Amino acid sequence: MADSYLTITAPAEAIFKEKMSKFLAFAHHVESGAEAKALVADYQKRFYDARHVCWAYMVGAARTDFLSSDNGEPSGTAGKPILGQINSLGLTDVVVVVVRYFGGIKLGTSGLIVAYREAARMALEEAEIVERHQMEDISFSFPYIAMNGVMKTVKVTGADIVSQEFDNTCMMTLSIRADEAEGLRNRLADVEGLSFR
What is the pLDDT of residue 1? Predict the structure, then answer.
């Protein structure tokens, strides 16, 4: 199972001009579809005087949660080309918004596709692309006497401690790369008295 994916680190923007129309493109890192839609709504408020605010997003390491909108442009001329640029770079956890100010000259279907695609591409080219890893949390409890065994396992596997509670019965949650989670579970299963939650 591949647990790595590509995303952008910080907002980026670009401007594309075509036959007097101006296309302002903005790319943002997002963690969910709801966050992407909230950003789109923010742009729609901010650029209330623009003719169109078109967008597309892709979220999740599996890259199966995505949506796009032509926002009044002819069907398939804005959202799909924007999403196409996200796909061509293999990105996820990203939303791209392209704001169009109409310049008075119609671009036609193919002209619109090219303009939205170019604006999205330029914004994404301005962004810093990084590789991230899908993480998995593992929660368990164990008797205090087993503390040494647990801490040795944490150290050897390089897992991050998310939370811990020490008492007669201790509780801990660890975070580790998804493709290393099974190995960590197997090591922890060897610790006497440990049970997964």
Answer: 42
Rounded Cα gap, residues 91 and 63, in angstroms? 8
Structure tokens at 83: 């999403």
Q: Cβ distance 99 to 51 under 8 Å? A: no
Report the chain's mean pLDDT, rounded to a whole number.
Answer: 88
Average pLDDT over residues 84-105: 90
For residue 68, what are the CA distances in angstroms to 48, 80, 132, 139? 19, 6, 24, 37
d(CA 101, CA 197): 54
Which among 92, 103, 140 is positioned nearest to 15, based on CA atoms? Answer: 103
Backbone angles phi, psi at 153, to 5 degrees: -65, -45
Q: Span 42-57, mean pLDDT?
A: 92
193 Cβ partners below 8 Å, 6+ apart?
142, 143, 145, 146
Element (H, E) at 142: strand 135-143
24: nearest Cα among 49, 53, 4: 53
Q: Residue 2 above 80 pLDDT? A: no
Token pair in block for residue 148:
């040494």
- What number is the average pLDDT over the span 125-133? 84
